[in-house]
Structure formats: structure tokens, C-alpha cells
């Protein structure tokens, strides 16, 4: 894939993330590029489609599947294990953090439970919680993004 | 009261190389351990209490913790680097404690997945494992346990009467808590060492034999409130419970196995030997 196409894809992915869009499409000189994020906030399932040739589609998938955590300004906190995500220590407790909250490095953001091991997930840097990506008490996969943090 | 002198005299020297905290009263041995572990703490540090004022289980559920009768304790461990078999830690802990109680009392102890400690299908003990990332390369794991030892039937709160028991209720005579502790603590340490060095194969087979959930019809209540009934089939590679739901397996289809990583399990009935 030409470098210019790759740059365009990366730019689109960045725009997608910056404005929390779910889909963005650009058509130029017969090349259509669409970046899309599934409604369920799993960035790993983001897809990139280019509508010109089969070759371009395959190379775009293998070489530049977007990793928004790399291309965006935000730090993505991911789940280290397969388990269940909890925003609070108990069903009656307030969430550890809300969107918009300022957090310190090391502050507990959530718990992921697996086999009754309650695993505290902490902020990896000082920053602002931009987005909570998963609903409390729902299952999460290994590596699934949980929070977006805007580092200070 | 727990006697520090008696424990120190009986515990193996390996355990005594570490710090040992014994409280008459503490909010929760796990809470104390987690706070302690924020600072440099020797691997294998032991915290014991005669009474907990805020004993807790999974999702901060209250753990009944009166004085003078039971065992409440926590051990602090540390993991360096990547550890693939995280999910086996709670299962290993259940097995280690069940083996220690059985070895000391000759009472048959089984496990409800992942690690409820059962005596005749009633809960005689519980385990709460908690972990946090201490540095970018070190994870701290606290294994907490509560065992109902010398509680009389009338001492249990009404809501626990039909689901919990104590060793005393079964044996009809009081047991020495120190003797149990001097078996449980080394058993947990050995179980930990074996899991870290050998992986799940160190405990997989023994765990499955002792896990009375397997082969039973069970009801799973998931953390989001949904439920699922099925047959508990096996333990997966990560320590997850694998069940065959009753909703699956239409004629001509092979049964679909569902992995359970978290949830409350209720044993309904035994379906096979």
C-alpha cells in the first residue's frame, strides 16, 4: 500500500477517536476509505475498508489495522485477564471513577474478577478519565480496552 | 485467643522467616494485607486475627467473623513478570486449604468452584483472593481465608443457618485452631510454590477430584443478574468452569460448552458418579 494511503487511514482513525465517532468515510480519486468502530467499544474489532482493489483491502488489514491507543492522544487501559469488569468494589458502592475525573497514577479504576480473584486495575499515569468503555458487571476479554485516559 | 507463642513454636521455620502478624481484632485481614503490601513486604507474610470487625468476601459481602472460635487469615505473595496461570491461584488456594483441614481432622472436605470450602455440601470456609499491580513488573496477590472451626449451630446468624456449618458441628468436639493453622499456612505456601514453578499441572487433577461442582446440575448467577442452568462438565485451562447449558444441545447438534469465569454457583443435584 502506498505510504500516502496509510497516512490517510491513520489520520481518519485519529479523527474517529478524537471525536468519538463510530464511522468515517473518505472518497478521493476513486479510492474509498472507511474506518469504523463497532458500537460495542472494543477497539480491537475496528475495521478498515478500502474499496479500490482486493490487494489494497488485504494489505490494509494486515499492515494497518488501526491501534487507536497508539495513534490517539489517549492512554488505553486494557484488561490483563479474561473476567468480569466491575466499576465499584460492591454493588452498593460508588464507582471508583467517573468520566471526567482526574486520577493519579496507581489509583484504582476498576476490578476485573476471574475465578473469584479480584484484580484491581490501576491508572498507569496521572490524567483525566475520558471514557469508560465497558459496562459494569459485564464480561471482558484479555487485552480489551476498559478506559481512555488523557494523560496530564 | 490465638497464642503467638504456640504458633511460633509449631510453624515450620520457613514460614517464620517471613513476617507474622497476629491480631486480637482487625477490620479484615485482607484489607490489612493489601495496605501492608503497598510497601515492600516479604513474600509469604502472614496476617492472622481472632476476630474481624469488617470481615468480607467477594464483592464486599460480609463474612461472619466472631471472636474465639474461627480462623481468619491472609497471606501475601508476589508475582514477577508475566504469569499465564493467574486463574489457577484461587483454585490452588482452595485445594491447599481443603487438604490441610482434611489432613488435620480426617473430615472429608470438598470444593465448590472456584474455592468455597464445603463439608457435607455446607460452607465451612471461604477464600478471597485479591491482587494489584505493585510495579510495572510485579503483581501482589493476597490470599485470604476464613474457616468456621468452633462455632456452635446457635451461634450462626439465621441467614446462614442452612448454608453454613463449622468443623465443631460435625465433630461434636472443639478443635485446636493453632493445629489447623500450622497445617493451612505451609500447605498454601507449598501450593503457591508448586503452581508458580510447575504451572496448573501441579494441582489440576487433585483439584478436579475434590471439586464437587463437577458432574452436578448447577445454577449460575452471573454478576449482571442473568442466570444459566446446566451440567458442570470440566475445568478449563485457565481454571474456568465449563458447563453444558440445558438450553443448548438441540437434537442433532453437539452440546455447546460455556466457559464461566465469574458468578455465584448453586449446586442443584448430582447427575453422575
Structural summary, described in words:
The complex is a heterodimer of chains A (152) and B (273). Chain A is of the alpha+beta class and 152 residues long. Helices cover 20% and strands 36% of the residues of chain A. Chain A contains three helices and eleven strands. Residues 39-71 of chain A have low confidence and may be disordered. Chain B is an alpha+beta fold. In chain B, the strands form two sheets. Chain B has a seven-stranded mixed β-sheet with strand order 1-2-3-7-6-5-4, sandwiched between helices. Chain B has a five-stranded antiparallel β-sheet with strand order 11-10-9-8-12, with no helix packed on it. In chain B, strand 6 and strand 7 (138-147) form a beta hairpin.
Mean pLDDT score of chain B, rounded?
93
Largest sheet strand order of chain A: 4-11-9-6
CATH class of the largest domain in chain B reads: Alpha Beta
**How many individual helices of chain A?**
3
SSE succession of chain B:
HHEHEEHEEEEHHHEEEEE
Based on secondary structure, the structural category of chain B is: alpha+beta
Q: What proportion strand of chain A? A: 35-45%
CATH topology of the largest domain in chain A: OB fold (Dihydrolipoamide Acetyltransferase, E2P)
- What helical percentage do the residues of chain B reach? 25-40%
CATH-level-2 architecture of the largest domain in chain A: Beta Barrel
Radius of gyration of chain A equals: 17 Å
The total of beta strands of chain A comes to 11
SSE sequence of chain A, one letter per element: HEEEHHEEEEEEEE
Quick summary of this structure?
The complex is a heterodimer of chains A (152) and B (273). Chain A is α+β, with helices and mostly antiparallel strands and 152 residues long. Helices cover 20% and strands 36% of the residues of chain A.
Amino acid at each position: 500500500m502506498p505510504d500516502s494511503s496509510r497516512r490517510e487511514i491513520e489520520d481518519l482513525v485519529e479523527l474517529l477517536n478524537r471525536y468519538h465517532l463510530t464511522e468515517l468515510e473518505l472518497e478521493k480519486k476513486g479510492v474509498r476509505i472507511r474506518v469504523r468502530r463497532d458500537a460495542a467499544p472494543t477497539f480491537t474489532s475496528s475495521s478498515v475498508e478500502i474499496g479500490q482493489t482486493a490487494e489494497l483491502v488485504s494489505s490494509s488489514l494486515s499492515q494497518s489495522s488501526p491501534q487507536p491507543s497508539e495513534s490517539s492522544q489517549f492512554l488505553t487501559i486494557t484488561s490483563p485477564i479474561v473476567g468480569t469488569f466491575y466499576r465499584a468494589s460492591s454493588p452498593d458502592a460508588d464507582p471508583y471513577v467517573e468520566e471526567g475525573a482526574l486520577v493519579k497514577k496507581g489509583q484504582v479504576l476498576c476490578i476485573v474478577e476471574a475465578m473469584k480473584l479480584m484484580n484491581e486495575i490501576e491508572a498507569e499515569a496521572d490524567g483525566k478519565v475520558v471514557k469508560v468503555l465497558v459496562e459494569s458487571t459485564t464480561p471482558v476479554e484479555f487485552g480489551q480496552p476498559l478506559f481512555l485516559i488523557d494523560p496530564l | 485467643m490465638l497464642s503467638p507463642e504456640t504458633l511460633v513454636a509449631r510453624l515450620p521455620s520457613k514460614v517464620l522467616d517471613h513476617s507474622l502478624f497476629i491480631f486480637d481484632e482487625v477490620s479484615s485481614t485482607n484489607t490489612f494485607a493489601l495496605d501492608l503490601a503497598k510497601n515492600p513486604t516479604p513474600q509469604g507474610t502472614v496476617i492472622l486475627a481472632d476476630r474481624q470487625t469488617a470481615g468480607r468476601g467477594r464483592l464486599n459481602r460480609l463474612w461472619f467473623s466472631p471472636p474465639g472460635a474461627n480462623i481468619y487469615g491472609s497471606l501475601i505473595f508476589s508475582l514477577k513478570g508475566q504469569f499465564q496461570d493467574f486463574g489457577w491461584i484461587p483454585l490452588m488456594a482452595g485445594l491447599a486449604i481443603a487438604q490441610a483441614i482434611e489432613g488435620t481432622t480426617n473430615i472429608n472436605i470438598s470444593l465448590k468452584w472456584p474455592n468455597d470450602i464445603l463439608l457435607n455440601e455446607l460452607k465451612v470456609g471461604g477464600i478471597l483472593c485479591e491482587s494489584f499491580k505493585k510495579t510495572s513488573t510485579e503483581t501482589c496477590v493476597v490470599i485470604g481465608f476464613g474457616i468456621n472451626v468452633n462455632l456452635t449451630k446457635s451461634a450462626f446468624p439465621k441467614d446462614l443457618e442452612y448454608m453454613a456449618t463449622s468443623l465443631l458441628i460435625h465433630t461434636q468436639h472443639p478443635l485446636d485452631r493453632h493445629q489447623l493453622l500450622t497445617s493451612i499456612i505451609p500447605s498454601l505456601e507449598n501450593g503457591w510454590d508448586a503452581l508458580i514453578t510447575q504451572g496448573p499441572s501441579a494441582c489440576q487433577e487433585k483439584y478436579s477430584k475434590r471439586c464437587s461442582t463437577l458432574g452436578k446440575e448447577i445454577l449460575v448467577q452471573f454478576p449482571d443478574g442473568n442466570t444459566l442452568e446446566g451440567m458442570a462438565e470440566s475445568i478449563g485451562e485457565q481454571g474456568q468452569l465449563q458447563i453444558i447449558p440445558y438450553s443448548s444441545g438441540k437434537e442433532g447438534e453437539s452440546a455447546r460448552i460455556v466457559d464461566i469465569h465469574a458468578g455465584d454457583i448453586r449446586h442443584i443435584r448430582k447427575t453422575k458418579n
